[in-house]
């Protein structure tokens, strides 16, 4: 306001303006001094600790899941796919099957993302190397972040089986026993794909130093970084307890989280390790072991807060519902079968490495509605991703074909989807080719 205008105001008018200005200043100061940190703004409601069901909250629909390798994460991916698919939520989908992995995540790896558009998505859950500043460009501020961990000894055994033909450290050794006996003989950290051989979870979380020696300051810094970024860390060894905690944290229904184990390996493909070999693998993956041990402690603290008796009741409800759905949906007594024995292309899991990836066969003669429900619980992740891609990015004038030229429905990954216009708009050609060829990622437990 100019000095001339101020001077011409009556005394009463000046007083009113003065009081308004003081009130506005007080409000501004209140916002400044009471403003929450971004982490607190993102955290949402606390984990419920009472009541038989999460009835006092609203379902969370903004979810980011860091899909770590060899941790039963494919089962969680299917759960998120089903939840978002049923509600027509938007997915931050990759151009291929991963979000730029193993490069640190960048927003341009998301199909359909336009820089500076302000566009956000509801669910992000495909493989990436976590880099939160770029994730926050994609996901809303109130997003719920979670991931899953596994004992690094059993994870390493699984990784060896799956990446035997692509990881240099595993290629150079005759068998896992040789690698465990002297990993430094085979491990060259600078070679491509070497990260699969050491501290793989540490790498997936985007933490530095995964290929070097353990130090306590480095380990503590990494754990603190993960703790600041994620609201909940699940444990593969206690998967059902994890589902119960996750269900209440997200305020979802029982059927939203009940799942069948997906992309598991056949029992004959799993090596039996001695206690000494398990110890050696934990020492070799010392950063992963520190990460796992730290969040193992906080996991059981959450279980205690939730209530042991209540957890026992809800575990039985979860397992009973899973048994009901197995009887309804699955043939072969609900037991997984080798992928080569599944004749339905929609249900054939992707095979890679030495592992034999298992899948499911549905009961014949299911009515259309029941078959649709059951089908979505057992669709391998590559086929389900193609289905969501075609739904979210429909193509016109394709003669009944979906996104990327695939037949509408559950496209088989072996068809080799071509890189199209959407790819070129979000990634360079070299990155797009690399992304498309990266289907050899960890898709099995």
TrEMBL record:
UniProt superkingdom: Eukaryota
Transmembrane regions: 12-33
Start and end residues of each stretch annotated as Disordered: 393-445
Membrane-topology annotation of the record: Single-pass type II membrane protein
Pfam families assigned to the protein according to its UniProt record, in alphabetical order: Gal-3-0_sulfotr
Keywords associated with the record: Glycoprotein, Golgi apparatus, Membrane, Signal-anchor, Transferase, Transmembrane, Transmembrane helix
Subcellular location: Golgi apparatus membrane
Similarity-based family: Belongs to the galactose-3-O-sulfotransferase family.
PANTHER family for the chain: GALACTOSE-3-O-SULFOTRANSFERASE, GALACTOSE-3-O-SULFOTRANSFERASE 4
The name this protein goes by in its record: G3ST2 sulfotransferase
Species of provenance: Polyodon spathula (North American paddlefish)
Origin organism lineage: Eukaryota, Metazoa, Chordata, Craniata, Vertebrata
Gene designation per UniProt: Gal3st2_2
């Amino acid at each position: 306001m100019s000095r001339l205008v101020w001077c011409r105001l009556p005394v009463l008018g000046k007083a009113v303006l003065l009081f308004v200005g003081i009130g506005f200043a007080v409000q501004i100061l209140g916002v400044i001094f009471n403003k929450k940190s971004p982490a607190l703004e993102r955290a949402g409601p606390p984990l419920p600790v009472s009541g038989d069901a999460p009835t006092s909250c609203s379902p969370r629909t903004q979810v980011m899941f860091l899909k770590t390798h060899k941790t039963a994460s494919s089962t969680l991916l299917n759960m998120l796919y089903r939840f978002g698919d049923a509600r027509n939520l938007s997915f931050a989908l990759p151009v291929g099957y991963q979000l730029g992995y193993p490069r640190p995540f960048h927003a341009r790896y998301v199909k359909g993302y336009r820089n500076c558009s302000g566009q956000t998505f509801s669910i992000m859950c495909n493989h990436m190397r976590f880099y939160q500043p770029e994730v926050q460009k994609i996901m809303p501020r109130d997003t719920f972040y979670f991931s899953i961990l596994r004992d690094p000894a059993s994870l390493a055994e699984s990784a060896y089986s799956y990446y035997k033909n692509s990881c240099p450290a595993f290629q150079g050794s005759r068998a896992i026993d040789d690698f465990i006996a002297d990993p430094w003989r085979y491990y060259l950290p600078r070679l491509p794909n070497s990260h699969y051989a050491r501290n793989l979870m540490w790498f997936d979380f985007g933490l530095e130093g995964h290929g070097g020696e353990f130090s306590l300051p480095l380990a503590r810094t990494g754990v603190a970084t993960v703790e600041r970024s994620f609201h909940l860390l699940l444990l593969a060894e206690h998967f059902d307890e994890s589902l119960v905690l996750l269900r209440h944290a997200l305020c979802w229904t029982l059927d939203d989280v009940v799942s069948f184990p997906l992309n598991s390996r056949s029992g004959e493909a799993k090596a039996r390790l001695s206690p000494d070999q398990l110890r050696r693998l934990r020492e070799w993956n010392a950063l992963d072991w520190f990460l796992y041990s730290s969040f193992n402690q906080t996991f059981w603290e959450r279980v205690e807060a939730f209530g042991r008796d209540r957890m026992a009741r809800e575990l039985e409800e979860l397992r009973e519902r899973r048994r009901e759905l197995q009887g309804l949906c699955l043939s072969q007594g609900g037991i997984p079968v080798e992928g080569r024995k599944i004749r339905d292309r929609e249900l054939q899991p992707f095979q890679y490495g030495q592992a034999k990836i298992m899948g499911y066969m549905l009961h014949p003669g299911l009515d259309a509605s029941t078959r649709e429900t059951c089908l979505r619980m057992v669709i391998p992740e590559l086929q389900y991703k193609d289905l969501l891609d075609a739904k979210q990015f429909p193509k016109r004038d394709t003669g009944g074909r979906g996104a990327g030229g695939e037949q509408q429905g559950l496209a088989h990954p072996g068809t080799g989807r071509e890189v199209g216009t959407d790819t070129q708009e979000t990634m360079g050609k070299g990155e797009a080719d690399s992304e498309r060829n990266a289907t050899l990622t960890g898709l099995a437990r």
